[in-house]
Design a protein that fits this description.
Number of helices: 16
Order of helices and strands: HHEEHHHHHHHHHHHHHH
Structural class: mainly alpha
Shape: globular
Distance between the termini: 46 Å
Length: about 375
């Protein structure tokens, strides 16, 4: 554990310094790297660098290199190295979107699925069970397992990208997920996965020091897809390495972004909207428009932006904690996920239909 904390500290420092360097050199790369303030999903008021993913990935790389040099963590450092290799398609295509604004959602998802296939081969594990007998039979066949794993991992990575936009929200959701997965890994004595989680958290904390609360730098698609992939793959590995752990515990750790993605797809399908098109009707967007903006107009825009994370954090944490407490009980976790999803939908509908939503100009179909 001491070695893991040392790696986390190095990861945090590297991520912090890289993000600081990006901010110091803005005048040389702003035309390529800033995220403008115009667009239906934009909630910030100033052009902001969106390549914070470079800091995250450098942080994880340095955290890995520290233990690679020390070699006292066993073969966990080698496994993390392979995971970093596997994450490259997701990271590269996400970063290209950050720089060019011309890489489609479909291409980014396919690249992240490619990362899932690479990880399946390099790490020699994947999703082979969901504790549902009728589906587990199909997952016992390697081609089905590979495709399902790639699809699931890409879906979770994309889910973190979908909730990105408010200062600290995605980073906090990632830390909650990693803390939950680490807690379960501790319960089953998996030092490797504890090591991974601490390194990832360190890199995120280094980025978050610049991102929260004022939003001086953003994760961007590169950071959201790459770190989302690494978290998703840790969620895959945990039940794969420990049969006593329900795969639904991993799902609960990433519960909030997954629920957001599922509901977004459903409502866009019902309203015949392009499932990949941006909109401003996510739950976090409604929280900002309906709860934060009307009640805290005295605060500057960046602070109101940051308050969205604080408002949603209790729900994000509650879902993940449920996965930790009942990590062995598939039936209970399935019921809990359904219950939390219903609560999410009801909250979304209530915010959309409130009188404040009308005052805020929320008029599109939800």
């Amino acid at each position: 554990m001491i070695l893991s904390l040392k790696s986390a500290a190095y990861a945090a420092l590297a991520s912090f310094l890289m993000c600081g360097l990006i901010l110091l050199t803005r005048r040389w790369h702003d035309r390529f790297t800033v995220d403008g303030h115009e667009g239906i999903q934009k909630v910030h008021t100033d052009p902001t660098p969106r390549i914070g993913g470079l800091g995250l990935m450098l942080g994880v790389l340095i955290g890995w290199w520290v233990d690679e040099q020390d070699a006292a963590i066993g073969d966990a450092d080698n496994l993390l190295g392979w995971m970093l290799v596997a994450s490259l398609p997701a990271f590269i295509f996400g970063l290209l979107e950050d720089l060019t604004k011309q890489v489609s959602v479909r291409k980014r998802l396919l690249a992240t699925m490619a990362s899932g296939v690479l990880a399946y081969v390099l790490c020699d594990c994947g999703i082979t069970r969901l504790d549902l007998p009728w589906l587990d039979k199909a997952l016992a066949w390697a081609p089905v397992s590979i495709l399902f794993t790639a699809f699931a991992v890409a879906g979770v990575a994309n889910a973190y990208n979908i909730i990105d936009g408010f200062n600290g929200l995605t980073a906090a959701a990632m830390i909650v997920a990693l803390a939950a997965l680490m807690a379960i890994a501790y319960e089953v004595g998996d030092a490797k996965l504890i090591y991974f989680a601490t390194v990832y958290i360190g890199a995120i904390v280094g980025f978050m020091a610049w991102n929260y609360p004022l939003g001086r730098i953003f994760l961007g698609d590169g950071g959201a897809y790459a770190m989302g992939f690494l978290i998703a793959w840790m969620a895959v590995m945990l039940p794969a390495r420990h049969p006593e752990i329900s795969p639904w515990a991993s799902l609960m750790a990433c519960g909030y972004p997954v629920m957001e993605t599922i509901y977004t797809m459903l409502r866009r399908k019902l309203t015949q909207k392009n499932s990949g098109a941006p909109d401003a009707l996510h739950l976090h967007s409604l929280v900002k428009k309906v709860i934060i903006r009307p009640r805290f107009q005295q605060f500057r825009a960046a602070i109101r932006n940051a308050m969205v994370m604080i408002t949603l954090l209790p729900f994000i944490a509650l879902v993940a904690i449920t996965g930790v407490v009942f990590y062995r009980d598939t039936a209970l976790l399935m019921a809990a996920f359904a219950g939390y999803f219903a609560l999410y939908v009801l909250s979304h509908r209530a915010l959309f239909r409130s009188r404040f939503a009308h005052d805020a100009g929320v008029t599109s179909h939800a």
